[in-house]
Amino acid sequence: MSATLLAVQALNGLQLGLVLFLIAAGLTLVFGVMDFINLAHGVQYMVGAYLAVVFYGLTAHFGLALLLALVAALVFGLAMEALVYRHLYGRSHLDQVLATFGIILILTEGAKAVFGPAPLSLPRPEALSGAIPLMDGFGYPVWRLVIIGAGLGVAALLYGLVQHTRMGMQVRAGATDAEMIGALGVDIRRLFMGVFGFGAMLAGFAGVMAAPVFAVEPTMGDGLLIMAFVVIVIGGIGSIRGAFLAAVIVGLVDTLGRSFSTDVARMFLAPAAANDVGPAVASMLVYVLMAGVLFWRPQGLFPARAG
To answer: Taking the model in full, what pTM does it have?
Structure first.
């Protein structure tokens, strides 16, 4: 295990964690404030990536494509809230799960029908397409560092909005007791719409930033949605601080586990057995972590009341 490989994988884990945070932040607010289970939230990540590809094709400019994709993702999220989600607020969690799962199928198949099943790509900005030299002459892609910087910037901005603005105060209060703030005169419908739209825009932003690194295809958000649910369970439902810390932990555990679990297994097992056991253990690490948190701290590391 070289220091260079460890540093590279740690950066990859941090990048994954921050992408997860961008997805999980909106998801944890929707769940915490509205008690609404939205399985289709991961589709917003896919929608953001496809929107960026479309707008880049129209403008040939990454910055304009990013801006237009964010606005379109916000509008799409608000439209989905008004047309679909609003009618599910008073329904059971089972109804919400079934309905939002249906939305996943509709939008996924719709993306296949419009764009085809073949993966698409989004070019990186020319100025950010190089690599920064690390040890042993190895270069780390600049765009991955941009994703890390953007994720940290959004986390700081979101923390400031939630902790130091009037709407943020309402969101934090709603995550604790939505019925009470409604009784105090807060427009719950407007608050819910704002949370949904902002969450959709964050997920879309994650999709745009990840599009130059990963393939843009209809099912790209499915695996990340599962990881995002792990993040909000570990961090605490409704907590932005918990989502951020849990996302970083999950990203590092998943990436480092997949990179080094086989090497660790070889310390205790024969090489052939380690080659089988290592990947199997790596795929379970984040879920073992979640189980441990649920056992020792069922409300999560930083529940909304505390964070």
So the answer is: 0.86
